[in-house]
Specification:
- With 476 residues, this protein is of the alpha/beta class.
- Strand 10, helix 8 and strand 11 form a beta-alpha-beta unit.
- It starts with a strand and ends with a strand.
- The radius of gyration is 23 Å and the shape is globular.
- The chain has a seven-stranded mixed beta sheet with strand order 14-17-18-13-12-19-20, sandwiched between helices. A six-stranded mixed beta sheet has the order 9-8-7-10-11-21, sandwiched between helices.
- The protein has two domains: 267 residues, 3-Layer(aba) Sandwich (Aldehyde Dehydrogenase, Chain A, domain 1), CATH 3.40.605.10; 183 residues, 3-Layer(aba) Sandwich (Aldehyde Dehydrogenase, Chain A, domain 2).
- The protein has 14 helices and 22 strands.
Length: 476
């Protein structure tokens, strides 16, 4: 049984959970110890005790640990990608990309540890100097989802440690393998006892314990809207800072003047790669009438050539969805869309392959309107809907007519419309002639409306959440 890491020691518990391969449910990747209330409270206490020393550690110490971890992640790309593909279902090509991204994130924040930023200003009062500096927040609770099982933990843990915080980390129950491997790498890289704690277990126990404990100074969470709201509500009595990433219903606008091949590839990638299990996926394809029929036909033809199969097969282009619950949800949304008048133009069938897994042919649903549930609610699977519009102005209005606001894209050859969309799209990230999914690690990530709450993630902007600002006045 793979143990939890608490106060620098690997601790087993009396209960373990199997980690199952969604491409082949007969493949048990491992058994992982399940933490309970006592283990979580011990981990929080360890993080609180370790914080004073770690918060005053040298930038060089933090740099060296993060750099060592990043180097090891990159040196083990193939091994970790195989683990990721086995436990989450991401195809090997995408898994390798995610592991590489995690390694690069650690190297970036290793360098950030040495990039000390501050301000020295003259006061408006003669003879007084003003210093503006940043200090770590304290104990940070990290709660991550299953869809990016090594990249998302990396982009939360790395900046937390970089800026001198201590961590209590709860990964998603479906993907403990990558989390355990990442924590093991950091432990061997030299993270002191108590600075990084891993507590694997159910959210109702481990996550709730973190929310209830006043010693947790901040929580960064990625997951569903409903759970994010509970995180915020539970944190308010403690006056702790929260950072929430809660999904999207991302539009890809296709104008009449677009390069059809580019638009089709953007839609195919954004909507269906990573089995559509990305918060930045292009789930709403908003297409002008003049190109609608050609676009739908070309996209359906490309979809028909996609190979759905086990994640570990190199020729697979679309892997399984993550588990039976997610597969049932995807199929339910397809049925709901059809019952509300949508036309299933391509795919949408659960597949029986040589291995027993959760395979779904990517689905394209046409003849939808903005008020249908398929266009209002996040499906989180390889399911995209098409909304026909008459003009750019209508396309923009439809794109913005959602409670979400994470990512939005436009395919056009018009600089005028591209520039207008970049300014007026009510999202945190805009893509022009690119898939809505796929972002860089050194720039801010996040959205607006119900998609995100709190400071941005990634890049130098991560300091906004993981540090507090101090202003000091001195009269020599």
């Amino acid at each position: 049984m793979k143990p939890n890491l608490i106060n620098g020691l690997w601790e087993t518990t009396g209960h373990g959970a199997e980690n199952i391969n969604p491409s082949d449910t007969s493949d048990v990747i491992g058994v992982y110890a399940q933490a309970g209330l006592a283990e979580t409270e011990t981990a929080i206490a360890a993080a609180a005790e370790a914080f004073p020393a770690w918060s005053h550690s040298t930038p060089q110490q933090r740099h060296d640990i993060l750099h060592t971890a990043g180097d090891e992640i990159l040196s083990r790309t193939e091994e970790l990608a195989t683990l990721l593909a086995r436990e989450e279902g991401k195809i090997l090509k995408e898994a390798r990309g995610e592991v590489t991204r995690a390694g690069h994130i650690f190297l970036f924040f290793a360098a950030e540890a040495l990039r000390q930023r501050g301000e020295l200003r003259d006061s408006v009062r003669a003879g007084v100097q003003v210093e503006v500096t940043r200090e770590p927040v304290g104990v940070v609770g990290i709660i991550t989802p299953w869809n990016f099982p090594i990249a998302i933990p990396a982009w939360k843990i790395a900046p937390a440690l970089c800026h001198g915080n201590t961590v209590v980390f709860k990964p998603a129950e479906l993907v403990p393998g990558c989390a355990w491997a990442l924590v093991d790498i950091l432990q061997r890289a030299g993270v002191p006892p108590g600075v990084l704690n891993l507590v694997m277990g159910p959210g109702a126990v481990v996550g709730q314990s973190m929310l209830d404990d006043a010693r947790v100074d901040a929580i960064t969470f990625t997951g569903s809207q409903a759970t994010g709201a509970r995180v915020a509500q539970a944190s308010l009595p403690h006056m702790r800072r929260v950072q929430l990433e809660m999904g999207g219903k991302n539009p890809l606008v296709v104008l009449d003047d677009t390069d059809l091949d580019i638009a089709v590839e953007c839609a195919l990638d954004g909507a269906f790669f990573s089995t559509g299990q990305r918060c930045t996926a292009s789930s709403r394809l908003i297409v002008m009438r003049g190109i609608h029929d050609r676009f739908v036909s070309a996209l359906a033809d490309r979809m028909a050539r996609l190979k759905v199969g086990p994640a570990l097969e190199e020729t697979t282009q679309i892997g399984p969805v993550v588990d039976s619950t997610q597969l049932a949800q995807d199929l339910d949304y397809i049925a709901i869309a059809r019952n509300q008048g949508g036309v299933l133009r391509a795919g949408g069938d659960a597949l029986q392959l040589q291995t027993n897994g959760y395979f779904l042919q990517p689905a394209l649903i046409t003849d939808t309107h903005p008020d249908m549930r398929i266009n209002r609610e996040e499906v989180f699977g390889p399911v995209a809907s098409v909304i026909a519009v008459e003009s750019y102005e209508e396309a923009l209005a439809v794109a913005n007519a959602t409670d979400f606001g994470l990512s939005g894209g436009i395919c056009t050859t018009s600089l005028k419309y591209a520039s207008d969309f970049k300014r007026k799209a009510e999202v945190g990230m805009v893509m022009v002639n690119l898939p809505t999914a796929g972002v860089d690690y050194h720039v801010p990530f996040g959205g607006r409306k119900s998609s995100s709450f709190g400071p941005r993630e990634q890049g130098s902007y991560a300091a906004e959440f993981f540090t507090v600002v101090k202003t000091a006045y001195t009269r020599p």
